[in-house]
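Re: Re: token formats

Sure, here are both.
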Amino acid sequence: MAIRHQVIERPPDAVWAVLEDPELYADWVVGTSASWPLDSRWPQVDASLAYRVDLGPWTFEGRTIVRRVESPRWLELEADSGRLGTARIAIEVRPWGGHALVLVDEHPLRGPGGALHAPPLDLLIQLRHRSMLPRLARTVERVAAAPGSTSRATAGGRARSGRV
């Protein structure tokens, strides 16, 4: 199982503000070049966003669907990559002192990825999360520091990451 965590030195509501904005996913999800809502209900159950991945001359689009949400603590998603299958991504945001502890648990669910799920695939997901969680922290920092931000986050935060 590919589980990673990161302490983001902002309160949980600042992290949640980023998670509930479907247009920000491309800013922190590794490999994604654009994201946009497919309906106005994000992040309610069954709401979805679309994303684009650019690999050299090839462009691929997929869809991510909310499967479970308990604001502002849990967000479980199913990323649908078409013929490659789907993946379950569970994001938990825990209060950690005055900061947020973010845990991400991702694994293949359906299709070839689910059928071929093995430790080498978990290693690739771990490497992806090693980049993704610091990107999430930077996005939270940027959004929280923006003029007019509705987040109650404070300035000057830093992030630490690691494996669970």
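Second one below.
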Amino acid sequence: MKTKTNKRILLTLLIVSAIGFVSNYIVMTTPISSFSIFDTSNLFTYFGVLIGFALTIYTFGLSMVSDIKSKIDTHKKLSEEQKKAMYVNLVSGFSEIKGDIWLIFYSILIVIGFAIAKEIPNPFGWQVEQLKLPDTANLTLFITTTIAMWDIMQTLFNLSEINLELNKDEKASL
């Protein structure tokens, strides 16, 4: 189980790093950082709306869990192994949603940090302005949080489909 978690964390870091490199290339070669969507206040609003939406979806999904769990337990055509696997997938789906919500939350904190850093004069005299790190971070976070929101919706849709299938099977067996 721990190896699976480590692999998931490593994969996430690799994907975010790849998005970061692509974002840096885009920021360096195009005027995308001047688009109003990447203004700090707009990004903060966007992430705030996303986290609110994500928490609402999570709460809605949690309300379905007990219903799905009871339907899995009472399903006559499923073996105990199949029931256990379905329940593990159900728990895994909510763990995935939780991770996506934390990603959105941390993105808010990073945007705030870069907004503050952008306004503070460089005390060390480092010439890093040409790297456009705040702009790269903003674009990277915009892309990753949008993907996280898509993942949350996809997971909830899958849970809803499981619930619908269990409802069909329950009605068919009556």
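The chain has four helices and no strands. The mean pLDDT is 86.
- S.
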